[in-house]
Amino acid sequence: MQRRDFVHQALLGGAALAAWPRLGGSLPGGSPLGGRHARDAAASQSLRVNGQRLNGWLAAFDRVGRTPTGINRVAYSPADLEGRAFTLDLYRQSGLAPRIDAAGNIVARVPGTRADAKPIVIGSHVDSVTDGGNFDGPVGSFAAIEVARTLAENGRRLAHPLDVVVWQNEEGGTYGSRFWAGLVSEADLDKVARSGKTIREGVGLIGGDVAQVASVRRQPGSVHGYLELHIEQGGLLEKAGLKIGVVQGIVGLRWFEITITGFANHAGATPMDQRQDAMLAAARFTVAVNEAIRRVPGRQVATVGRVNVTPNTTNVIPGQVVLTVDLRDIEQRTIEQFTQTFEQLGREIGEATGTQFRFARLTDSKPALADPRVMDLVQGAATSLGLTHQRMPSGAGHDAQEMAHLGPMGMIFIPSVGGISHSPREFSHAADITNGANVLLHAVLAADRALD
Ligand SMILES: [Zn+2]
Fold this sequence. Notes:
Strand content: 15-25%
CATH architecture of the largest domain: 3-Layer(aba) Sandwich
Number of domains: 2
Helix content: 25-40%
Low-confidence stretches: 1-18, 22-33
Shape: elongated
Radius of gyration: 24 Å
Largest sheet: 9 strands, mixed
Number of strands: 17
CATH topology of the largest domain: Aminopeptidase
Structural class: alpha+beta
Bound molecules: zinc ion
CATH superfamily of the largest domain: Zn peptidases
């Protein structure tokens, strides 16, 4: 789970928007373009990635950081360094010339035919959580390399430069992409990552240099488009029997800490009608939050995840409860509406139980929306490949949320077996990975043509 920042179309430069025609003409399926463009488009339509090669890379990568309890490639650990070395080798094998930028990201640029064009950026990450799996991150990272290789092998040069990026320390807070977006603060640099290293130390360890990090910063509107392939990490695609998720964006999140104050008193001597039981209020509130969220159609979610009871003793009526609510949705409006609903529930239950509810916000991050035109391109690519699909939000954070600050962003999801991720049981089928990489390839081609 990562921090999320506010993203809005208004951040994008007007020029970037003007370069994108209304959708339809730019899909792999129907080319309105004439002459060489038409021939290019026709030739591009039959392009496919080498799925066997891509899945072979993933299988080989499975031994890197493998421990009895899962994959442990946490950022800046020896296994992360080994994973990055493995990845750098894939870049080189694929004819790409990778470099480490000052933020520690692995970047290779394939020049485009138009010198003045903004880059298309594709990529993901190869670091993992503690006791994670081999698919969250590597699927999109290696698919990006495979897409660049497929284009080169077929002599297909894009008009736009293509930046193939593997972001550093995604799982610890999307650091690599946040450096590009200029969203890492001085205080962030001294935060300690899961490996025990500070961000500052870690960036140095992987070949970056925080003193030079301003050099990686990119301006809003400087990216033609960002595309990231990722495993879904939920079970919606599998359950629906669909192959591709066209991601609508990364959900916004609001965390509340709610202090419920009652009165601690003797559990034996206080009559039932004279109590101010904070625990009873907390229990009612927990149920009410769940019911309120479920009553309204939509994919919003809310969770009471932490409860601290005082004095937490068998023979005393609880005098105080502190609990948290985690609220998420792709629409900021929904988050605001449920904030009001929860506060209202607090007032009502407080009145009924003789307690007081005090709300504080621990975290607030706005949804990072995918660009509708990029969603159309991804959907068009899936359709042209004969792959079933649906639009869906991402409940988890991704580097794409930071890249949305810099240009039109889109993501492609493929099914996760059993909806499991951040676990050694995380798994996606080879055929689904190949499908996802082909959608990435054709979305990139379509994004490239969208300049015409
Ligand atoms: Zn990931």
